[in-house]
Design brief:
Strand order of the largest sheet: 3-6-8-10-1-12-14-16-18-19
Structural class: mainly beta
CATH topology of the largest domain: Leucine-rich repeat, LRR (right-handed beta-alpha superhelix)
Radius of gyration: 19 Å
CATH class of the largest domain: Alpha Beta
Helix content: under 10%
Largest sheet: 10 strands, parallel
Number of strands: 22
Order of helices and strands: EEEEEEEEEEEEEEEEEEHEEEE
Shape: globular
CATH architecture of the largest domain: Alpha-Beta Horseshoe
Distance between the termini: 23 Å
């Protein structure tokens, strides 16, 4: 299944467009070299023709319109150094089906992935705090949305006209603040899975209360290899009010997402 996997945490200052815009024409799969680009990727713009792209670790943000309308782009690999994905950075990349890495991303800004109709799963790991307005709007291919426990806010229209969504999971015990029309035209009878103790809160929260099938999320431990064997197994612990599972030096959240 095609997936969107990013790990995101809080608003960073935007970089001004003081530099001259540099436009590149490229085809196929490319790996951006650190020596060719400034850490703040705001003065670079790619034309259509790219199939996949890998960024170097010095890059700290992807600027406004950097890859807008790159309809041949199918995959992106982001380093942990990226903290911010700018306005319309990947909008209308209609072939984009895989976004990997990005463990340091803090904010997805306005329309960053609008119209990326090849994305089927939007799964945001634990550190994401802010989803901007219209961030995934009109992305009709999305079927599953998984939102982390630390999410603070979802901007207006963030998932509007995402008519293919069949389920939403939100691990936040306090319902994230939602702008108006956040889930406009999303089927309101689909299951919305939330922490059991928070069902009532979601049923009264703006935008969330429009869903009629809010139910307790599955908090069963993920299936882990070798679990239960002598000397090897999983241990559970609470951190910042969240249940975490440690296994073989890897840490998972309660719904099986890799945290570290």
């Amino acid at each position: 299944m095609k997936k969107f996997l990013l790990t995101f945490t809080c608003l960073v200052a935007a970089t001004a467009w003081a530099q001259t815009m540099i436009t590149y024409t490229a085809t196929g799969s490319i790996s951006i070299q650190a020596t060719n680009f400034t850490p703040n990727f705001t003065n670079h713009r790619f034309n259509n023709g790219i199939g996949s792209i890998t960024f170097p670790s010095p890059v700290t943000l992807i600027g406004e319109d950097a890859f807008v309308d790159c309809t041949t782009l199918t995959s992106i690999s982001l380093p942990a150094s990226v903290t911010y994905i700018g306005e319309s950075a990947f909008s209308n990349c209609c072939s984009l089906s895989s976004v990997t890495g990005g463990e340091g991303v803090q904010v997805i800004d306005f329309g960053a992935f609008i119209g990326c109709n090849s994305l089927q799963v939007v799964e945001l790991p634990e550190s994401v705090k802010i989803i901007g307005e219209a961030a995934f709007a009109n992305t009709t291919g999305i079927q599953t949305v998984k939102l982390p426990a630390g999410l603070d806010s979802i901007g207006a229209g963030a998932f509007s006209v995402c008519t293919g969504i069949t389920s939403i999971t939100c691990a936040a015990t306090v319902p994230p603040r939602c702008g108006e029309y956040c889930f406009y035209e999303v089927n309101k009878t689909i299951p919305v899975y939330v922490p059991a103790e928070s069902i009532t809160a979601y049923q009264s929260a703006n935008e969330w209360k429009d869903f009629t099938n809010i139910q307790a999320m599955n908090t069963a431990l993920p299936a882990l290899p070798y679990e239960g064997k002598a000397g090897i197994g999983a241990s559970k612990f609470i951190r910042n009010g969240q249940l975490l599972i440690k296994h073989n030096d890897k840490i998972f959240n309660a719904i099986g997402g890799r945290v570290r």
